[in-house]
């Protein structure tokens, strides 16, 4: 499935954040959005059109970046992926974003958005089985 152009809205949704527990994680400072791979970006919540998201982990293998995020709504994965690609497309030839729903327990729907220089963006949703 191809993903069309999207804006990167950063509007804040305080009412959505007030309903969800912050789990001791603060909102991201503005400078964290400029370096999504920084330590400070691993310790905060970013705003998204349908709620919030945070990076759980990231790793790179040669020219491939793999990022695991948790989001209020996995439909924001496309916009999250675009944020990473905007900042990291010169450093990586492929970027994969795996988003799980916030505080998912048991089997959860995961959305993967992949980007490559040759193919652009593609999305896939699947159900991940809980680990035994």
Question: What this model shows, in words?
Answer:
- The chain is globular.
- The chain has a single domain, classed as Diaminopimelate Epimerase, Chain A, domain 1, CATH 3.10.310.
- The protein has helices at residues 14-19, 77-88, and strands at residues 46-48, 51-61, 64-71, 94-101, 108-116, 120-128.
- The chain is built from two helices and six strands.
- A six-stranded mixed β-sheet has the order 1-2-3-4-5-6, with helices on one face.
- It has 132 residues and is mostly beta strands.
Descriptive terms for the model:
2 helices; 132 residues; mainly beta; Diaminopimelate Epimerase, Chain A, domain 1; six-stranded mixed beta sheet
State the helical fraction: 10-25%
In terms of per-residue confidence, which ranges show pLDDT below 50 for 5 or more consecutive residues? 1-19
What oligomeric state is this?
A: single chain
The amount of beta strand, in percent, is 35-45%
CATH fold naming: Diaminopimelate Epimerase, Chain A, domain 1
Overall pLDDT:
85
CATH architecture: Roll
Give the helices and strands, then pairings:
Layout lengths: L13 H6 L26 E3 L2 E11 L2 E8 L5 H12 L5 E8 L6 E9 L3 E9 L4
Parallel strand pairs: 3-4
Antiparallel strand pairs: 1-2, 2-3, 4-5, 5-6
Gist?
By secondary structure, this protein is mostly beta strands. The chain has helices at residues 14-19, 77-88, and strands at residues 46-48, 51-61, 64-71, 94-101, 108-116, 120-128. The protein has a single domain, classed as Diaminopimelate Epimerase, Chain A, domain 1 (Roll).
